[in-house]
Amino acid sequence: MFEAVKLTLRAKLALTYGTIVALTLAGFAAIAYVTVSNELLRNLDASLQRAGTSLLDIIRKEQQQARKPLASLKSRRRISSGDALRVDILDRPNMRNFVGPVLNSETVEPEDPVWSAVYEHMLLNSSNTALQLATLEGGVAWKSERLGTDSLPTFGLFAREAASATPAPIFSHYWLRGERYRIVMIANDVASVTAAYPLSEVDQTLRRLFSLLLYGMPLALVVSGILGWFIARSSLKSVDDITQSARSITASNLQLRLPKSPNNDEIARLIDTLNDMIARLEQSFAQVRQFTSDASHELKTPLAILMGELGVALRRPMTAQEYQSTLASCLEEVERLANVVQGLLEISRAESGQVTIERKPLSLSGLVGDICDDMLLMAESKHVGFTTDIAPDVKIVGDKTRLHQAVLNIVENAIKYTPEGGSVRVELLAIDGRARLLVSDTGIGIAAEDLAHIYDRFFRVDKARSQNIQGTGLGLSIVKWILDAHQATIDVVSAEGSGTTFKITFVTL
Ligand code: ADP
What whole-number percentage of the chain has pLDDT above 90? Predict the structure, then answer.
């Protein structure tokens, strides 16, 4: 919604909040206005209907007693527009609202229920309600004073046609002397009553409600907007604080952490997550630094030897045999350099995800058997005993080339780190859907404190170095990566001076 203009999160939140409040208020105002307007009209209709119905009920009761229609009531009481009769009840002080039949006290009982009801009603709503009583023929028998010479519509002919049953009341609007009235026309089988009430009061109430909503809404909107702004500001303050602290953490001071939040809320979780991320970054940076220094150290030694050998060869003339031995020594160092560079290349490719691991069914028995055949020669030349026990038909899914590289490295290490006279044993077993490869030797072993580091890059146990055994310290870290990629596990058991056993477990097909 706010993408076009670059707004701060705080402004976006306040605007969204304000818009939601405005829409809610507008909806609420519309519903309130319509409901109040309907309710006022309904109440007005109900009270007009009540007034008319009660009047009609009394008239019917009266008629039942007299068993005469209103016309005869009229004649009995001599009600006619021309008659100027008198009745006690209409002489009472508040009866000025009445107009029409003025009954004679001699002919009408003072406690006449019809007029009592009219009188009572008029007393209650003396000023505004107008009533009109008509015969079924539509002739006006009596009406409120406020109507003056005007008349309200009557049920008339319709009422007579429907006289068998009580017809439903008719609700309508009616203009009288420039004023709008709500009218209810009710009839029974005796007479019809029209009750009217000016709508100006209802309109006035609705106008008041409308102005209240009109002025109240923007006010509420402004107040909620300001509140929304403050809420957004206070909620985002901690985010601002995190931004400030995070800015001060750079590659050179990755040991710093964001200050912890005392609350256990989203911000606290964000801080924890960022701190974890910084810790991981710190670790990666440290690894990269270590790796670079180890790599340069590994490259420095053979390069220094190379430079020394070549320098000597250049400084003084040598015999052909001496040149040959210098060149052989140089070749050895170059091979060592090539191994280090090859190892580094493989690790960096693996880490950058450039190496894809094939997933094809292969015979692990065949793969281990081939490696052992090759390694037998190396063991024999070192005078190390070499025995195997390889279960047939052990099949797994994986990358043949990579697995060959990993197993070869383990077996090669076993022979490399086993002195003359020792022995190496390679076993492949199939147990419960798993293949277990055990490579044991009776070699120099690995000290307990070094065991945890043997998969680290460039890690070489000092003893291996001092005994001048060739190696780069990269082999086992590549082995670990290959086995991880095959969901295989590697464990090592070793005792310094008595030998080492590597145990690799694969999931079989
Ligand atoms: P390297 O090229 O030095 O053999 P590796 O990563 O393969 O590098 O092995 C790391 C170190 O672990 C070796 O330098 C050696 O000290 C130790 N190591 C590995 N295998 C054995 C073993 N079978 N017996 C004794 N030490 C071993």
Answer: 41
Check residue 295 and give its pLDDT.
84
Q: Is ligand 1 within 6 A of the CB of residue 500?
A: yes
Instruction: Report the CATH number at residue 324.
Output: 1.10.287.130
* Ligand 1 centroid – CA 429 distance (Å): 24
List the residue whose alpha carbon is closest to atom 2 of ligand 1: 471
User: With a 6 A CB cut-off, is 459 part of the ligand 1 pocket?
Assistant: yes
pLDDT (tens digit per residue) in 305-318: 899 999 999 998 88
Of 207, 232, 252, which closes a domain?
Answer: 207
CATH number at residue 425: 3.30.565.10
Q: What is the mean pLDDT of the chain?
A: 82
Which DSSP symbol is given to 281? H
In a domain, 86, yes or no: yes
Distance CA(426)–CA(204), nearest Å, equals 103
Compute, in angstroms, the gap from residue 417 CA to the centroid of ligand 1. Answer: 7
DSSP 427-473: EEEEETTEEEEEEEE-SS---HHHHTTTTSTT---HHHHHTT----S
Q: How would you classify the pairing of strands 489-495 and 423-431?
A: unpaired
Q: What is the pTM of this model?
A: 0.55
Q: Is 411 in the pocket of ligand 1 (CB under 6 A)?
A: no
Residue of 384, 417, 468 to mutate, ligand 1, most atoms within 8 A of C-beta:
417
Q: No. of H helices and E strands in the chain?
A: 13, 13
Contact indicator for 90, 114 with CB cutoff of 8 Å: no
In a domain, 225, yes or no: no
Q: Is 488 in the pocket of ligand 1 (CB under 6 A)?
A: no
Give yes or no for a contact between 294 and 269, defined as CB atoms under 8 angstroms apart. no
- Range of the structural domain that residue 334 is part of: 266-351
499 lines ligand 1 (CB under 6 A): no
Q: The dihedral of CA 299, 304, 307, 310: what is its sign?
A: negative
The total of structural domains in the chain comes to 3
Query: How far apart are the CA of 478 and the centre of ligand 1, in A?
Result: 12
Atom number of ligand 1 nearest to Cα 441: 23
C-beta of 136 in contact with ligand 1 (< 6 A): no
Please tell me the predicted confidence (pLDDT) of residue 159.
46
Within a domain: residue 241? no
| Residues 88 and 127 grouped into a single domain | yes
Nearest protein CA to atom 16 of ligand 1, as residue: 461
Stated length of the chain: 509
